[in-house]
UniProtKB/TrEMBL annotation:
Name of a matching Pfam family: Oxygenase-NA
Domain Fe2OG dioxygenase: 150-263
Keyword Ribosomal protein: no
High-level lineage: Bacteria, Pseudomonadati, Pseudomonadota, Alphaproteobacteria, Sphingomonadales
Keyword Metal-binding: yes
Protein name per the record: Proline hydroxylase
Species this protein is from: Sphingomonas gilva
Length: 264
């Protein structure tokens, strides 16, 4: 059960807490490329194939998380602000970064993408889709921009007590990269309570299944934006995903969202 321990991380064993803390210390957030090489991408691909999501523990150091979250109150650096209740999206708000993105966000987006492109291509092949993704993020963005999807999609979300994010999909045009990343910037059990990241899976003609993804500060979750292939008795079929956040009971929760396609 999440929230049981003194720091809201009762579900983690002592060993796991130490491992995450060592990983945090070892990773400099100024060089996320180095961090990328420490990730077992084969394992990540396996998790994404079987569950539709994969965890990257301690992707960002606490100082990096705090620095990005603190940007929420700055005047500059964003292209728009969305108050979720006004659109029926939930309660809470988010801001889309403007180009040029903050260097850390830019580097993360650019460094993670090449590891996910082969997974995305395998998914498209299994789903019988013709479109494939280039190995380089700049090339994919060129494609988005040529199709009129020119607005940056990385975003910073902010939730207070009583806020939540309804189940949704981040689709912004015809060009959709099938995987995205969310990084929890706040400390569960310290900065906020409640506010779990939730992912649902809808198999054809079946009821939806929900999965809560326990995240600590700096942990990232990679997840399916829309559809993912699942092997059946007669080839692969498509499962539909949505994601959201359960109600924040107290405190303040910030997330960094990294979406790889741009918006129309
Ligand atoms: O706040 C969260 O954990 C979810 C954020 C989200 O919807 C996104 O990054 O697309
Ligand atoms: Fe989202």
């Amino acid at each position: 059960m999440k929230g049981a321990g003194p720091q809201g991380r009762g579900a983690l064993s002592c060993f796991e807490r130490k491992r995450r803390s060592a990983m945090r210390a070892a990773r400099s957030y100024l060089t996320p490329k180095m961090g990328m090489n420490k990730i077992n991408w084969m394992e990540v691909a396996g998790e994404l194939d079987t569950r539709g999501h994969a965890l990257l523990p301690a992707l960002l150091a606490p100082a990096a998380c705090d620095a990005i979250a603190a940007r929420y109150d700055e005047d500059r650096g964003f292209r728009s602000r969305v108050v979720m209740a006004r659109h029926g999206f939930g309660r809470g708000e988010y801001r889309y970064f403007a180009y040029p993105l903050p260097p850390l966000v830019e580097r993360l987006r650019t460094a993670i993408y090449p590891h996910l492109a082969p997974i995305a291509n395998a998914w498209h092949e299994r789903m019988g889709r013709d479109d494939r993704f280039p190995t380089d993020h700049a090339a994919f963005l060129d494609r988005c921009h040529a199709a009129g999807q020119t607005r940056p999609t990385p975003l910073l979300l902010q939730y207070g007590a009583g806020d939540y994010n309804c189940l949704h999909q981040d689709l912004y045009g015809d060009h959709v990269f099938p995987l995205q990343v969310a990084v929890l910037l706040s400390r569960p059990g310290e900065d906020f309570d409640g506010g779990d990241f939730v992912l649902t899976e809808q198999r054809p003609r079946m009821q939806s299944r929900a999965e809560v993804v326990p995240l600590g500060q700096g942990d990232a979750v990679i997840f399916a934006v829309n559809e993912r292939p699942v092997r059946g008795t007669r080839g692969h079929y498509r499962v539909k995903h949505r994601h959201g956040v359960s109600t924040v009971r107290s405190g303040r929760r910030h997330t960094l969202g990294i979406i790889f396609h741009d918006a129309a």
